[in-house]
Queue: 3 jobs
Job 1
Amino acid sequence: EVDASKPDLTAALRDIRSQYEAMATSNVQETEEWYKSKFADLTDAATRHAEALRAAKQEANEYRRQLQALTCDLEALRGSRALDIEIATYRKLLEGEESRITIPMQSFSNLQIRETSLDTKSVSEAHLKRSIVVKTVETRDGERPAWTLNPCQKPI
C-alpha cells in the first residue's frame, strides 16, 4: 500500500521534461522566425539605404559637374570682363585723342580761312603752312570712327 500511495516521480519528471522540451522547441522556432523576420527587415532597409546612397552619390557627382561648368563660365566671364575693361580703356583713349585732335583741326581751319581772306600775306609766310594728314580708324563694333594724326606729322 505504501508503494501505491507514493506518486510516480519518474513519470512526473518525464512529463515535466517533455513539457520543457516542447516549450524550448517552441521558443527556438519562435526565436528563429523572429530572427529571420528581423534579418529580412534589416536586409530590406540596407537595400533601401544602399539605393539612397547611390542616388546621393549620383546627385553629388551631378553637382560637381555643375560646379565645374559654372567655374569655367565664371573664368570665361572674368576674362571677358578684363577684355571689356581693356576695350573700354582703349575706347576712352581713342575718344581722348579724337577730342585732342579735333580742337587743333578746328583752329587750323580757322587759321586757313583767315590766311585766305588776307591776300596781303607774303609768299614766304604762305610756305610756313603745315599739312595735316588725317587717318580714319574704324572700330569693329561699328561705333563712330576715331580721328588720329599720322605719327610722322606734328600737331598744330
Note: The chain has three helices and two strands.
Job 2
Amino acid sequence: MSGLFLRISILCLSWWAINCEEVVSAKTLVLVDNFLIKETHSIFFKSLKDRGHAITFKSVEDSSLSLFKYGDLLYDNVVIFAPKVEEFGGQLSKKMLLDFIDEGGNVLIATDDKPGVILREIAVECGVEMDVPGKSVIDHFNYDKSDPTHALIAVDGENLIDASVIVGPRNISPLLYKGAGLLVNNSNPLVLKLLSAYGTSISSPLYDELEKTPLLLGSEIALIAGVQTRNNARVVFSGSIDFFSNNAFLSGVKKANGKESSKSSNAQVSEHLSKWVFKENGVIRVKSVSHHKLNEAEPPMDYTITESAVFEMELEHKVGNQWKPFSARDLQLEFVRIDPFIRTIVPLVGDGKYKVVFKIPDVYGVFKFLVDYKRIGYSSVFSSTQVSVRPLKHTEYERFIGSAYPYYFSAFSMMFGVFIFSLVFLHAEVDKDKTE
C-alpha cells in the first residue's frame, strides 16, 4: 500500500512540475534606477506576469548583480528601465550584457532624452546609435496638443514596420512617444527600424533655437529599433521609457492635425513588441527532417546520380507556451556541394509539413540538403543534412544508348560490307578458274 502511495505521489509531483514549467515560461530580470517605475509602469509588468514571466526587480546599483552562474544563464530576459545609468553594480558590465546576448538572452532597453553612457555603448555594439543627451524628437506638425513643447509625438500605425509578428496590426489609433531619437545602421541587415519618425521630425534640444541642421532629421530617425542576432537572440531599444508607462497606455490622443482617439495604442504595441523580444512570438523550430529515394521509405546509404530524391520537413512555431504547425509558401531547399546545384521551393502539403521530389544532378560527390529560412520577425531556421552521391556502377549503365546508334550502325554496316566483299571476291576467283 505504501509503495502504491509513493508511486501516486511521484506521478502527482511530476505532473505539477510539468505544469509549473509551462506556466513559468521565462525568468526575467528588470533593472531600474528608481523603484517608483514598478508603479508608473505597472500595467506593462502585469502583462508580463500574466503571460508567465517570473519577474525579479533589482536596482542597477545592486552589488549582487550578475547574469551568469557557473557559465549558465541566470535569466532568460533582461529589461533595463534605467535611462540615466552610468555604471552597473555587482559583476554586471557592458561585456557581460553582450555575452548574455551572445548566449541567446533577450534584452529590452528603454531610455529618455538623457541616455547614460553605458546604454549608448551597448546600443552601438548592436548597430544602433542614440542621439547625444539633451536632445529630444520634436515634430511641429504631428504632436499631441497636451504638450506645448511639441516633444510628445502622436505617431500613426503606418510608421510601424510592416511585420505583424513583431508589432501587431498597423491599422490602430496613434501612439504617444516622448524621448530620444535613434539612428539605425542600414548596412547591418540584422537591425530593424520598428517605429519611424515623420519626415517633419527633428532631434533637437527642447528650448534651444536651431543654429544648424540637426544630425538626426526626418524619417531617418528611429523611435524604436530591434535587433535579431545570428543566434536568434533579440534586443529592442526604445528612445522613450514613457512609451511603456501607464500614462501612455491610458491617455487619449489629440493630434495637431485633428485626429483624436479616446485611447492610444501604446499598450497593444508594447504587448506585441514584448512578446517578440522575449521570444513568445515569431519563433520557429524544425520538428523533423527526412529524405529517401522515390518509392522507398528509409534514407539510403547513398544516392546515385540522376535518381529521384524525396525531401520532407516539418516546422513548428511558438504561440504562447504551445508549439503549433507553421505553414509558409516560401520555404526553399538547396542541394549543395560547394555551390547549389539545385534550388527549389518546398511545397506545403499539410499543416506544417513540406515535401518536394527532385532529380539528383549528374554530378557525384558529397552533397547537403540545406534549408536556410530567414524572414523578418521570425527566428532563422537552418537545417543541413549531408549525403553522398555516387556514379553509376558498371552494371547499371544502359545496354543500348540512343546516342551510340550511329556507332552501332557503322559496326554492323562494316560487317555487312566485309561479308558482301567476301562473296564478290570469292565469286570472282571461281569465275577466273573456270575461264582458265
Note: The two ends are 126 Å apart (CA to CA).
Job 3
Amino acid sequence: MSTNKPKLTKYPKRVLMDLSSDCNLKCPMCVVHGDTDNPKVNAIIKKQMKATDAKQILDEIVGHTTTIGPGLWSEPLMGRDIMMHLRSMKRRGFTLSMNTNALLLNKKTATNLVEIGVDSITISIDSTTNETLSKIRGVEKLEKIQDHVLQLLAIRGDSAVPRIGVSFTKQPENQHEEQEFIEKWTEIADFVRVGEIFENGKFPNIKINPEDRIPCAELYETMTIHTNGDVSICCLDGFKDVVVGNAVEEGVQNVWQGDKLNEIRKHHENGDWSKVPFCENCDRWASNSFTERQEGNLLIRQSAEFTFYNRIDRLNTWKSR
C-alpha cells in the first residue's frame, strides 16, 4: 500500500545548478572535494556549465520553478561566469539562495551580489578559532572570512536582500565551540544555521525512528543538475551514481516526470526502500519536518538535520518563510 504520496508538480519547485564544480578548499566532510583518494573525483571537479546550457534550462523552468541554488558541492564564486549566471537568473525572477566559504567574497564581489539582488547567502564558517578552522576546512583564515561577512553586511545595509547567515556543521573537532559560535553570530548575522554531521546516509548523533519513514520530499521538490546537464537522484549524489536523465538533452520537464524518477518515487511511496539502493539506508527524509519556538529575539526552527537561529528583528529578510 502506498504511504503519504506527495503531490508532484509539473516542474521542480527548486533547482540546484552546478554552474562550476571547482572549489578552493578540500574540507574532510565534503562528499566530493574531501575524498581526494576517490577515483571518481577527477570526472566531476573543475568543470563549468556552458552558458547556452544554463540559458536553455532557465528559459524552460521560468514561471514554474521558484528557487535556484547556484551550486552543489563546490564554491560557486569560483565559477568564471558566476555573476553573468546570477544576473540571468534574477532577470527571470528566480529566488536565489547560495552558500559560500567567503574566501573570495571581496568588496567587489560582495557589491555585485547585493546589486544583483541575490536573495540569501549563507557563509560556512564552522569554528570560532583558527585552530579549529584548520581541522575542519584546512585553512587558518578565520579573520579574513569574518571580515568578508561583516563587509557584506555593511554593503547590504538596511536592504531586505540578501538575507545573510553563517553556518556551523557539528563535528568532533568543533563541537566544543558550538555555543560560542551561536552566541557570537546571532548578534551579527540575520541567522545562524547549525547542522548535524551527515555520514553514509546517517545522522550519527541523532536517533531516527525508521518506522516513521515517509517518501523523501527531495524527490518531489528539488532537481539536482550537474555541469553537463546530468540530473542525479538528489543533491547527496555528488558523484552521479544514479543519473535519471539529462536536463539539456531531454529537457527539465521530461526528466522530472520521466520513467526513471517516477519509478524511484513509486518505490518510496510503497515503502520499498531496498529497491532504491542509493536511498535504502538514508535518513535524510527526516530533515523535511520541523518545529519552531521563540527564545528572546530568536525564532528557532529545528529539524533532524538543521537548527536555524533566526533574528526576529531581521525577519524582513526572510522571503520564503
Note: The first helix runs from residue 41 to 44.
